[in-house]
Amino acid sequence: MKRVKMIVAYDGTNYCGWQIQNNGITIEEVLNKELTSLLKEPITVIGASRTDSGVHSEGNVAVFDTENRMPADKICFALNQRLPDDIRILQSQEVRPDYHPRKQNCVKTYEYKIMNRKIEVPTLRLYSYFCYFPLDVERMREGGAYLVGEHDFKSFCTARGQAEETVRTIYSLDIEKSGDLITIRIKGSGFLYNMVRIIAGTLMKVGMGVYPPSHVEEILDARDRKAAGPKAAAKGLTLVSLDYETELKNQIHGENKDWSYTLNQEKILSEGNAWLTIHRCRAEDFDRLLVRVVHQAVQNGARTVFARDEETVGRIILGKPYGYYVFQADFENKGWAVTQK
């Protein structure tokens, strides 16, 4: 048995998204069917990003397990002979048996394209959103700058797809204009349901002059989907790439006006230990931050996490369940609380 990783590109126009649905054909369904036929055994793929109906991809990632002896790097060529023209496997390779595309630290890159002119260009209609109101790109850039960094993006998540944890990190948000085509390019640690499309819809409102750029910060602070702009059409969105972390970062620092913390991971690989220092945090965000960052450390391999609150003594309550974690006093290192996996 071996596990094979694939880079999958597709035109999402004719599909009901990635994940198998009852109401129409999906990318996952086509891959399962053609891989099963090719390898002569039941195949079920696991995708990294479950893109919506009409969304495109240049670099989604999927894995599957097989007992077939065909070399992993040859599977992409054989499979492409069977796939429809709007789906292609750009690369296939063998990975370790426990590799999971949704359980790895990675940077996801999306692009949202807007055709901004008076009359639509038919050849671009399937891959961009048409907006005939003139958009001020510089105002959009000013508004987008408020979104960069680690924030609670609850305002930018469709309510019915609400994740339990809505904090995400956007590493960069760039907006470029070439002729009549505006491209919003976003890199982040991960994205909530419809998050990029809601960001695009909100920034278009800024570009039209409906919102001032500073209103984007107010939308973030509201933590309410009703405060943000509309969800932009799916056809303008493309998943560009998923770049997986090859080495564990020694430190992770998260900071905004609501919190600041440092997670030291230097000893995770050698000793299984990580240290979380919370420099400051709003009271209403404290428990969520503690659970979220400790869980991140555990996912990265920590067996023991030491935590310290520099702002308020006693906020880490010993013996209280924080999600899956319970802290006890660390008598060797006073001022620290400790929890073990």
Automatic annotation (TrEMBL):
Catalysed transformations (reactions): uridine(38/39/40) in tRNA = pseudouridine(38/39/40) in tRNA
One of the protein's GO biological processes: tRNA pseudouridine synthesis
Keyword Ribonucleoprotein: no
Active-site residues (renumbered): D52 (nucleophile)
Top EC class, one word: isomerase
Coiled-coil ranges per UniProt: none
GO molecular function terms attached to this record: RNA binding; tRNA pseudouridine(38-40) synthase activity
Taxonomic superkingdom: Bacteria
Domain Pseudouridine synthase I TruA alpha/beta, residue spans: 7-100, 146-245
One matching Pfam family: PseudoU_synth_1
Function: Formation of pseudouridine at positions 38, 39 and 40 in the anticodon stem and loop of transfer RNAs.
NCBIfam families linked: hisT_truA
Oligomer status and interactors: Homodimer.
Family of the protein in this entry: Belongs to the tRNA pseudouridine synthase TruA family.
Name of this chain's protein: tRNA pseudouridine synthase A
